[in-house]
Amino acid sequence: MEILCRKKLTKEEVAQFRRAVDKDYYFEMYYDELPIWGLIGRVENREETDDPKDYKYYLYKHIHFDILYNKDRVIEITARTDPHSVLDLTEDKEVDGEFTYTAKWKQTDILFENRMDKFSQTSLPHHLEIHWFSIINSCVIVLLLTGFLATILMRVLKNDFIKYAHDEEAVNDHEETGWKYIHGDVFRFPKHKSLFAAALGCGTQLFTLTVFVFLLALVGVFYPYNRGALFTALLVIYALTSGVAGYTATFFYCQLEGTNWVRNLVLTGSLFCGPLALMFCFLNSVAVSYSSTAALPFGTIMVIVLMWTFMTSPLLVLGGIAGKNSRTSFQAPCRTTKYPREIPLLAWYRGTVPQMAMAGFLPFSAIYIELYYIFESVWGQKIYTIYSILFIVFILLLIVTSFITVALTYFQLAAEDHKWWWRSFICGGSTSIFIYSYCLYYYYTRSDMSGFMQISFFFGYMACICYGFFLMLGTVGFRSSMLFVRHIYRSIKCE
What's the pTM value of the predicted model, to 2 decimals? Predict the structure, then answer.
């Protein structure tokens, strides 16, 4: 038996530990990347009454570790607390405690390569068949809804093409209506083109980052409990893909006849990283004030700063230069008129906010079931290992986001509203609002978080993640709408 430490608990510390024991707090340790869990104490009520005075609170003082090894490799480790070695925390008084531990080593034939099989099996959902059934059910519902909308949209478009193509000699006798009527305005460049191009650049980079992370996950790079691999991969891949953001933003900005591409490049580099860096500084300061191990050390922060300085920024600039040199003119199927047409007065449900609610709900319904398992993995004890299901859900999310944005863009143009550029981007990214709303639901109904630090970490980092989703899905929505708008206006004869 080894003595770990001797500690005299004050009245305040005894009260804190008593509350922790009452709420079933547990400790979490790691040994050679293997997790160890255990309750920190227990509550007894020998009188079996509801009177709080009859409850006794005990804090475990001794932990025994059972360690299995194969040659020079640790295969498995478990921890057991001694129910007879406890501190009585029932009364508000100072308590002297001596905390100890023991360890027992035992040889095993399990290979080091197979030591994670146990965790992979136990980390799966308890009812995998129900999990798969829920995903398939979600896919069927979403596909039926999208198929229904696709059928309506194709029939309406077919009727429009027939109407516009039939009897060209009689076209002048009828006043044009619908989306053909605004052919001279539909390709008019949006306001705040520099911000728009920067958002597209950041969204494209985040989409590329997500695809690479999925590829690494599917080939088995992120095995359970390899805590640093995922975060390291995110940092490195984000730095390496910064050239994608620079190229996309500058190329599109020059297509929109922008002149100050350097300012656009600076905006692209700070549009996502700026809020993320500010949020990180705030949350890391909170962790430092609480003396928490969640605070990154100064050396790690300096490595991230150096990576940004010598890798991310140069690649961003190189991508911007490549985008500027390879720019082409914006080839619009229709000639844009000098003066924009006045947009008619539209019904309330055609406004931006109702359209966002409609555009975000359907994609959110496709990922709602999977969100619970992801949140339990990130903010709870469970470990997520079914990356194949997650990849299917991600593909479904992209398909549904693309389709619903295209459908809403068509209805907007049919109502003779030609300001679709920003609308398609915002509607595509509106799913992130529903995801953040789910954060509120999860926090109050599913999690046992409390205290300023947990609240700030949960809502702070989830805000950054949802902001990234907004940029990525907004880019997907706009790109899909652009392809659709180019196609329909290329298919008709516009005078």
Answer: 0.81
Question: Residue 287: exposed, middle, or buried by beta-carbon count in 10 A (0-12, 13-18, 19+)?
Answer: middle
Which tokens go with 49?
A: 């009454």
* Cross-strand bridge partners of residue 98: 6
Element (H, E) at 297: none
Q: How many CB atoms lie within 10 A of CB 273?
A: 18
Q: Would you call 73 exposed, middle or buried from its count of C-beta atoms within 10 A (0-12, 13-18, 19+)?
A: middle
Least Cα distance to 375 among 290, 278, 453, 466 occurs for: 466
265 closest CA partner among 338, 319, 345, 208 = 319
Q: Which of 214, 148, 278 is nearest to 222 (CA)?
A: 214
Q: Token digits for 454?
A: 């947990």
- Residue type for 192, please? H
SS3 per-residue string spanning 247-269: HHHHHHHHHCCCCCHHHHHHHHH
89-131 pLDDT, tens per residue? 888 888 888 999 999 999 998 888 777 766 655 544 444 555 6
Q: What is the DSSP string of 407-450?
A: HHHHHHHHTT----HHHHHHHHHTHHHHHHHHHHHHHHHT----
φ/ψ of residue 119, rounded to 5? -75, -35
